[in-house]
Write a structure and sequence with these properties.
The protein has 5 helices and 15 strands. It is of the alpha+beta class and 298 residues long. β10 and β11 form a beta hairpin. The two termini are 69 Å apart. The structure holds zinc ion (2 copies). The site of one zinc ion (ZN) has 8 residues, from loops.
Length: 298
């Protein structure tokens, strides 16, 4: 690789060893004459995690990236101030050289990339000190990423022109931001809908009640119907996630009926009385015995 090409290995589609071998056997050649054209800058990829609430409302985030920029000293020419790139003396500006080779299978001629200029057709006698002749310099940049409302795990945002600077006047690459959504303590997401579990007491489930259920915008009042069964769900319309395509999803509340693990004497007496009223003959068990029973089983 010559001076101009030192930092040019960024194009993911060019210059693979396989291509070189292919060229060697099938005689495919670069376009003749002159220097290679502009080369587009490499695309960059970064990962960005946002909260579920940020995914719901959209958010602007500043991210720091390191990327190749056009060298501010030589403005991308790679040559020191007052000097200029010159035609490569080895290939006389062709960018490639032709060898004659004798092998066990006979002799054949082979075209190779010029070893001095690396195919760039020009050499830089006095390279820019700042970028050592590459014409580009690595720099840290802060970039604002606008995350739209309704993004999902794995949503990829494209920021055109925010990738690396091109070579020899080529256009800039793009920046891709791969989004991840941080797990939420209360809500889980299925498509546009949010799901959450809300505990209610035995008495609340039997009698019905007015409670507050959490949403991404804060608690909203909800009436529990009397006779609520364990695992019952209710839908709070429009409190799910916005969608990039459709309208906003719903919040699905899953009720967990909580059976008390400890009872006071008075509570036990009332529950027995309650059972008796419903014609049940209950023989209450001692908590300690039950605990021993359970530990023997496990
Ligand atoms: Zn420079
Ligand atoms: Zn050359």
């Amino acid at each position: 690789m010559g001076a101009l090409r030192d930092h040019g290995g960024s194009n993911p589609f060019g210059g693979s060893p396989f291509e070189d071998i292919f060229d060697m056997f099938f005689g495919r050649e670069r376009p003749q004459g002159g220097e290679p054209g502009p080369e587009r800058g490499t695309d960059l990829r970064v990962a960005l995690e946002v909260t579920l609430a940020e995914a719901a409302t959209g958010v602007e985030r500043r991210i720091a990236i390191a990327r190749e920029e056009t060298c501010p000293v030589c403005f991308g020419t790679g040559a020191e101030k007052g000097s200029a790139p010159e035609t490569c003396p080895t290939c006389r500006g062709a960018g490639q050289v032709r060898y004659s080779r004798r092998t066990a299978f006979g002799s054949f001629s082979q075209v190779s990339t010029c070893p001095q200029c690396g195919g760039a057709a020009k050499v830089i006698p006095h390279p820019c000190v700042e970028c050592r002749g590459s014409g580009r310099a690595r720099a840290k940049r802060e970039i604002t990423v606008k995350v739209p409302a309704g993004v999902e795990e794995g949503t990829r945002l494209r920021l055109p022109g925010e990738g690396e600077a091109g070579m020899r006047g080529g256009e800039r690459g793009d920046l891709y931001v791969d989004l991840a959504i941080a797990p939420h303590a209360i809500f889980s997401r299925r498509g546009r809908d949010l799901h959450c579990e809300v505990p209610v007491s035995m008495a609340q489930a039997a009698l019905g009640d007015e409670i507050d259920v959490p949403t991404l915008e804060g608690p909203v009042p909800l009436a529990i119907p009397p006779g609520l069964q364990p695992g019952a769900t209710t839908t709070v319309r429009g409190k799910g996630m916005p969608s990039l395509r459709d309208g906003r999803g719903d919040l699905i509340v899953h009720f967990q009926v909580v059976i008390p693990e400890e009872l006071t004497k008075e509570e036990e007496r009332l529950l027995l009385q309650f059972g008796k009223l419903r014609g049940e003959d209950i023989k209450p068990q001692k908590k300690t015995l039950l605990g021993k029973f359970r530990s023997r089983l496990s």
